[in-house]
């Protein structure tokens, strides 16, 4: 039975489940898996909202919940956006704080009987999420980070996205496409003429984004389309099946999951 048959549709950022929904869904699976979208609140040029990464993470999580029986959580909306500090509106928390938030959420879930957590990351600057997952897994806890670069690459090819993952760094074809599909009402004019490429970003962590772009855009948003956004989300929902299998397996061995 698909997730869409087990819960009301969630079109907002906050899931509409009741505690009975969670109890019923948990009774039908061998191990409950929670999905936590993690976004950011940072500049995305003059045409995408500050909440773009949160909106993208939530769109991916909703697509997952429509295809798989998971416990969908509300998003973490502010994270590690320090490289965007030069632009007004950007807000960050420390990596230490984000690390603690994810660990606390995972511990709370385990106390309520949900012992597997997938963090759906919408912001590339949240490097610490990889550390959280590694450390939790080493302690024997069930946690994963999604999407992996391989999942994005599969989705990019399947959806017909032309820009490479290297070039499509920020407010580019992928993010614009997903928002054109999921939240077209939030896109301002200008994405059609805002393309900017800066593939060599070796000093990004030291200098920040402002050293590489005046507009805040690195990528080709002009190539974005709602159809590509729909295809990206469909592919990512398919790829998520391998994560469910891994986290709900009877043992902790990692099988060759490959492309879903």
Please tag this protein with its features.
4 strands; alpha/beta; single chain; disordered C terminus; 260 residues
Description:
The chain starts with 18 loop residues before the first helix and ends in a 13-residue tail after the last helix. It is built from eight helices and four strands. Helix 3 packs across helix 4 and helix 6 packs across helix 8. It has a four-stranded parallel sheet, sandwiched between helices. With 260 residues, it is of the alpha/beta class. The N terminus and C terminus are likely disordered. 38% of the residues lie in helices and 7% in strands. The relative contact order is 0.16. Strand 3, helix 4 and strand 4 form a beta-alpha-beta unit.
Oligomer classification? single chain
Largest sheet: 4 strands, parallel
Average per-residue pLDDT, rounded, comes to: 92
Order of strands in the sheet with the most strands? 2-1-3-4
Count of runs of 4 or more consecutive helical residues:
8
What series of H and E elements makes up the topology?
Answer: HEHEHEHEHHHH
Low-confidence stretches: 1-10, 253-260
Basic shape:
globular
* Distance from first to last alpha carbon: 18 Å
% residues in beta strands = 5-15%
C-alpha Rg (nearest Å): 18 Å
The counted number of beta strands is: 4
Helix content: 25-40%
**Overall SS class:** alpha/beta
């Amino acid at each position: 039975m698909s997730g869409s048959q087990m819960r009301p549709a969630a079109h907002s950022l906050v899931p509409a489940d009741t505690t009975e929904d969670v109890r019923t869904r948990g009774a039908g699976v061998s191990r409950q898996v929670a999905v936590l979208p993690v976004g950011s609140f940072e500049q995305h040029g003059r045409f995408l909202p500050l909440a773009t990464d949160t909106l993208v993470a939530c769109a991916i999580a909703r697509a997952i919940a429509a295809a798989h029986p998971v416990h969908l959580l509300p998003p973490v909306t502010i994270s590690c956006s320090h490289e965007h500090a030069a632009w007004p509106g950007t807000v960050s928390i420390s990596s230490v704080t984000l690390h603690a938030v994810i660990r606390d959420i995972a511990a709370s879930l385990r106390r309520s009987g949900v012992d597997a957590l997938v963090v759906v990351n919408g912001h590339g600057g949240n490097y610490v999420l990889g550390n959280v997952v590694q450390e939790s897994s080493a302690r024997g806890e069930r946690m994963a980070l999604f999407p992996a670069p391989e999942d994005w690459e599969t989705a990019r090819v399947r959806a017909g996205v032309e820009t490479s993952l290297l070039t499509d760094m920020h407010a580019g074809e992928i993010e614009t496409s997903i928002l054109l599909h999921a939240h077209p009402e939030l896109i301002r004019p200008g994405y059609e003429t805002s393309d900017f490429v800066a593939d060599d970003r070796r000093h990004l962590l030291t200098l920040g984004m402002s050293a590489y772009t005046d507009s805040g855009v690195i990528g080709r948003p002009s190539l974005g389309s709602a159809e590509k956004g729909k295809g990206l989300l469909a592919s990512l929902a398919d790829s998520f099946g391998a994560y469910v299998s891994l986290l709900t397996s009877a043992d902790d061995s990692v099988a060759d999951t490959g492309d879903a």
